[in-house]
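Researcher: Here's the sequence for the chain we discussed earlier.
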Amino acid sequence: MTTFITSDQVDEVLGSSWASDQATKNKAVLKANAYMTSLRLANFDPKNIPQDMINAGAYIASVASSGQLFAQKENSGVVLSSMVKADGVETTETYAGINTENESLLPDDLQFALALLSSYRSNPLAFNVFR
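Model: Thanks. This is the structure I predict for it:
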């Protein structure tokens, strides 16, 4: 795993009050580094992380500290209909379909971080051809 950010760097970017305590900060930074590593970022020197990556990592750590980075959504969309029955114990929910791969489902700070990282993200299906 690549270390993109440290807790001290997040404090520099967001101020020291971005998480409740040092243990939460350490866990959030670990999650942020794991998340950024999973993005398979390219075109940077791991020994000299660019400032925009540090900024992105800080916002990702902030999202992680609030428990939203790896949160699973059980349902999504707008409720179109809902039916509840008391004695027969029946319940029905219908949601409008939306694309669950859409980044609009992500917290705004995570969307911002991904925008900061866009120039470093590579297409996993792309390949270089050398002649």
